[in-house]
Design brief:
six-stranded mixed sheet, 254 residues, five-stranded mixed sheet, Nucleotidyltransferase, domain 5, 2 domains, 8 helices, 15 strands
Amino acid sequence: MEAFGVDIGGTGIKGAPVHLEAGSLRADRFEVGTPQSGRPEDVADAVRHVVAHFGWKGPIGVTFPGVVADGVVQSAANMHPAWVGRSAEHLLTQRLERPVALVNDADAAGVAEMTHGAGRRRAQPGVHFTSGPTIMLTLGTGIGSAIFVNDVLVPNTELGHLEVDGHDAEKLASARARQVDGLTWEAWGRRLQRYLTHVEMLFSPGLFILGGGISRQANRFLPLLQGVKTPVVPAELHNDAGIVGAAMIAHQPQ
């Protein structure tokens, strides 16, 4: 069984058909740059271009980097403010001429990881987890979050905007912050550890899953997080998790 997933990010929009039972892409993902304007109509056209690349006619799920409630965007920290209050699900359905399911990007990635990735491997040999929630954090242009309590998603948590040492957390510890501030892995690791220990203090999680494209380089920074008491593992679907999760949600009954 298949569906199509599109992941809208602050710098790129990528998509692919997804094999739902396996949680894997059925073809190499296709990506275009996020329009510089960031406006809803321009981004919707870019999404249509990604879908048209595959000639896709079936179910479509789309992620958005912000709070989404009943298809309406409630926040857009890294996108144009014209998104806020807009029924993006309706806009995309019109542009793509077929039903679209819209979901927060980190929530989609978390759903994919809990079903097909690191979240289903919590009983690892030698690692003992508490009964606390599983927290997925996507480290990219910003920081997205997805919290699962007893494997049930608590949507739209936006932990990337927690205040840490007087700063918005994603301005300190996102993958983009590492690049913008020219940080070494060690310096960025200290920031990431400070952020994780803050989240740890607030939520007492049983497991952290770190995703985003940077998760492919987990060996560069996971050993630096010795001050984090909670087990920390890299996402297994890496930067494809949002696409897979969006496709999964598109297939669910609306």
